[in-house]
Design a protein that fits this description.
There is one protein chain. The chain has 13 helices and eight strands. The protein has about 325 residues and is α/β, with parallel strands linked by helices. The chain folds into two domains: about 5-110 and about 320-330, SRP54, nucleotide-binding domain (Four Helix Bundle (Hemerythrin (Met), subunit A), Up-down Bundle); about 125-310, P-loop containing nucleotide triphosphate hydrolases (Rossmann fold), CATH 3.40.50. It has an eight-stranded mixed β-sheet with strand order 3-2-4-1-5-6-7-8, with helices on both faces. The protein is elongated, with a radius of gyration of 21 Å. It binds guanosine-5'-triphosphate. Guanosine-5'-triphosphate binds near residues 162 and 279. Belongs to the GTP-binding SRP family. FtsY subfamily.
Amino acid sequence: MGFMDKLKKKFIQNNQEEVTTKYKEGMEKTRKSFSGRINDLIARYRKIDEDFFEELEEVLISADVGVMTVMDLIDELKMEVKRQNIKDTKEVKDVISEKLVEIYYGEDDEEIEEINIKENELTVILVVGVNGVGKTTSIGKLAHQLKNDGKKVVLAAGDTFRAGAIDQLEIWGERAGVDVIKQHEGSDPAAVIFDGIKAAKSREADVLICDTAGRLQNKVNLMNELAKVKRVIEREIPGAPHEVLLVLDSTTGQNALNQAKTFSEATDVTGIVLTKLDGTAKGGIVLAIRHELNIPVKLVGLGEQMEDLQQFDANAFVYGLFADMLEEEEA
Ligand SMILES: Nc1nc2c(ncn2[C@@H]2O[C@H](COP(=O)(O)OP(=O)(O)OP(=O)(O)O)[C@@H](O)[C@H]2O)c(=O)[nH]1
């Protein structure tokens, strides 16, 4: 049984078909482009040779997989093709799917990296990222999901810089049915977050999600602002923040990678929220982020609905990428 068949079986056994459907739908653009180009390659090359690998390399790079990641992946593929003595290009697609999962998880045990939510104590999540990437939307969706899981959630409107950011967060708070702590535009973000902590404590909340402004023009300012916010949080709650989530827009490709570099230099980013994966044909960015920056992707945006923010699962991701392979077989 091939890797993709095994994946399918595993998802069915675990009653996770809903997850695979979300990924399949959300990754349609990437699948059509990426998998389509690989199909085209396979049709043109009967035998696996150097030229085949060279073209495959181009396909992977143009899907934003990242040059370093692609090099490693191609090396792995070459070894595996030799080891299994694969001659037929048709079989190679299954090997690619397997290696993509392996390259994502790297040396780690294959394990989904969940958001770190503490039991019986207040969890503080700091959310950073530049404007327009889907930060507010993602905070709203996360709040909604945590609330559905039975958690009491409070939001702190720490983006006091962008006009309208506070109102927007309030709208999401209303939608999700959670409290939003705010001050006026232009006030000190650290002060808002301080208020948020006080409120979360007195209301016995389980999770406090803090929005922040993401001004990138000046790295020193960004660093200072984030450091100040973190100091306030650490002082009030030892061991917090429990997560620093960086929101990136997957449609921005290399820019997203550059933002990740800048933010991880400014603060300890513990996880990535990758939005708008449904809006790009270059979903390979997930692999580049993980492999080249070594920061786990914890959540992905697969659409505009509340439930479309999904925990990242590399197996489901690869399943979404190559789902047409299984349908071909079934047909
Ligand atoms: N299709 C799709 N759209 C998304 C996703 N996440 C966010 N969006 C959309 O992206 C747009 C920008 O999102 P916002 O949350 O308003 O952007 P922003 O991050 O608030 O800006 P800041 O709060 O200033 O950082 C909105 O129209 C969202 O609906 C996603 O995963 N898929």
